[in-house]
């Protein structure tokens, strides 16, 4: 016995070769009670309109590919149950991103933000291989683990009003990643990163809407990372003023 | 309906390889949820505080202009518009302080505070509330002449 019901999907379409600006198409989809939003998009693609372009991969909230605006809110569509929505569901590409086609956004600009925080272990002096690995206690791991859970789904960028107004802003996920390395006991590059974070377009460009943390599907809490980075960047600057040789 | 975001938002520095639709932000964003409304009100509160600072400057000016000017200033404070303004300012500054200390301040605490691990986040609100009530009680006691 099938318990499917029909829902109408209003989906943003944009063909860069033909459309001046994005438009919408409507699709009637017979949905199952346990379907996620991504299941409906895949049904449209497979059964109704094969020209629809959308990005997805793992279907288990790990790869971060399927972020879209669902009824105006940034959601990971493989995790977002259709039971949460009414008879008409609006699906749009992620806000704040240039749109390549339909629901696919350009993320090269997003990846450039990541490089700016130097997301790798920086050591004052590299250890020789024979000296062994860098050991880390469970407590030291716990200090940054939360901020290392980001899957780069970009939902936080689409929810952030500062991102939409300040193109230079590094944004929540990039700052959370930089903060993750600053808290890592194996890293010695925090002063270098914090100096960069004091620049225009970094931590002080955040005016705390906290929406990034609300929409994060992995509970990374990027707003906490940004605000902790503000404190650490300011303290690092003050140490440089007050202590001999900047406290180094 | 969507609002245009800044046209260079999240645009690659070398430009895009194909023509893209410009970035947009949800059309209902200021009213979409209570957090966006709080975010706007938090910024708007700055205007109120500038006006309140203007009233203080005026008070200092009156104080420096002699007893007559001071009495006149005190009389103007009894005007219903002034009373409404001060009631509004008081409500706004209480909310502003609550958002600053009970939401932002808690988020600002790093995992290690000096050599000590940060206490659980749930510990902060009651400690802050106790500090707030204590400071307010002390201030009221001083202003009412009960102490000092």
List the helices and strands and how they pair.
The complex is a heterodimer of chains A (248) and B (148).
Chain A (H helix, E strand, L loop, with lengths): L4 E9 L9 E9 L5 H12 L18 E4 L2 E4 L11 E5 L6 E3 L2 E2 L2 H8 L22 H8 L9 H5 L1 H5 L6 H11 L7 H8 L13 H5 L6 H21 L6
Parallel strand pairs in A: 1-5
Antiparallel strand pairs in A: 1-2, 3-4, 3-5, 6-7
Chain B lengths: L1 E3 L19 E3 L7 H31 L2 H10 L3 H29 L3 E2 L2 E2 L6 H20 L5
Antiparallel strand pairs in B: 1-2, 3-4
Helix pairs in contact in B: 1-2, 1-3
CA-based gyration radius of chain B: 23 Å
| The number of domains of chain A | 2
**Strand adjacency order, main sheet of chain A:** 2-1-5-3-4
Oligomer: heterodimer
H and E order of chain B: EEHHHEEH
Structure description:
In chain A, 33% of the residues lie in helices and 15% in strands. Chain A has 248 residues and is an alpha+beta fold. Chain A has 2 domains: 5-105, Roll (Ubiquitin-like (UB roll)), CATH 3.10.20.30; 108-247, Fumarate Reductase Iron-sulfur Protein, Chain B, domain 2, CATH 1.10.1060.10. The longest helix of chain A has 21 residues, at 222-242. The termini of chain A are far apart. The mean pLDDT of chain A is 94. With 148 residues, chain B is mostly helical. Chain B folds into 2 domains: 1-30, no CATH class; 33-133, 3 helical TM bundles of succinate and fumarate reductases (Up-down Bundle). Chain B has 4 helices and 4 strands. Chain B has helices at 34-64, 67-76, 80-108, 124-143, and strands spanning 2-4, 24-26, 112-113, 116-117. The A-B interface holds A 14, 16, 19, 21-22, 69, 72-73, 92, 95-100, 106-110, 112-113, 139, 142-144, 157, 161, 163-167, 183, 207-211, 214, 221, 223-224, 227-228, 230-232 and B 2, 5-6, 8-14, 16, 18-29, 32-33, 35-36, 39, 42-43, 103-104, 107-112, 117.
């Amino acid at each position: 016995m099938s318990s499917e019901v029909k829902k109408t999907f209003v989906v943003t379409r944009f063909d860069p070769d033909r459309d001046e600006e994005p438009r919408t198409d409507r699709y009637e989809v017979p949905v199952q009670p346990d379907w996620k939003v991504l299941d409906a998009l895949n049904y449209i693609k497979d059964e109704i309109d094969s020209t629809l372009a959308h990005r997805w991969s793992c279907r288990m909230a790990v790869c971060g590919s399927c972020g879209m605006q669902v009824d105006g809110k940034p959601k990971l569509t493989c995790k977002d149950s259709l039971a949460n929505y009414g008879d008409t569901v609006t699906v749009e590409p992620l806000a704040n991103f240039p749109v390549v086609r339909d629901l696919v956004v350009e993320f090269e600009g997003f990846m450039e933000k990541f490089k700016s925080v130097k997301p790798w272990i920086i050591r004052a002096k590299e250890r020789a291989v024979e000296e062994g690995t860098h050991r880390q206690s469970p407590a030291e791991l716990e200090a940054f683990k939360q901020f290392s859970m980001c899957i780069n789904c970009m939902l936080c960028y689409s929810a952030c009003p500062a991102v939409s107004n300040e193109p230079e802003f590094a944004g929540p996920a990039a700052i959370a990643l930089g903060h993750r390395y600053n808290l890592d006991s194996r890293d010695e590059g925090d002063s270098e990163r914090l100096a960069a974070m004091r620049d225009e377009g970094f931590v002080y460009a955040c005016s705390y809407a906290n929406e990034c943390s609300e929409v994060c599907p992995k509970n990374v809490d990027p707003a906490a990372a940004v605000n902790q980075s503000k404190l650490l960047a300011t303290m690092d600057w003050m140490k440089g003023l007050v202590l001999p040789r900047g406290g180094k | 309906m969507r609002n245009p975001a800044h046209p260079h938002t999240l645009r690659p520095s070398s430009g895009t390889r194909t023509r893209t639709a410009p970035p947009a932000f949800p059309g209902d964003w200021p009213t979409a949820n209570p957090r966006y409304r709080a975010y706007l009100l938090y910024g708007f509160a700055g205007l109120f505080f500038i006006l309140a600072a203007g009233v203080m400057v005026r008070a200092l000016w009156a104080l420096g202009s002699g007893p007559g000017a001071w009495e006149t200033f005190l009389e103007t404070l009894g005007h219903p518009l002034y009373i409404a303004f001060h009631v509004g300012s008081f409500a706004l500054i209480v909310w502003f302080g609550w958002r600053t200390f009970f939401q932002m301040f808690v988020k600002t605490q790093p995992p290690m505070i000096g050599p000590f691990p940060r206490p659980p986040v749930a510990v902060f609100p009651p400690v802050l509330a106790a500090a707030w009530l204590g400071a307010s009680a002390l201030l009221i006691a001083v202003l009412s002449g009960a102490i000092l």
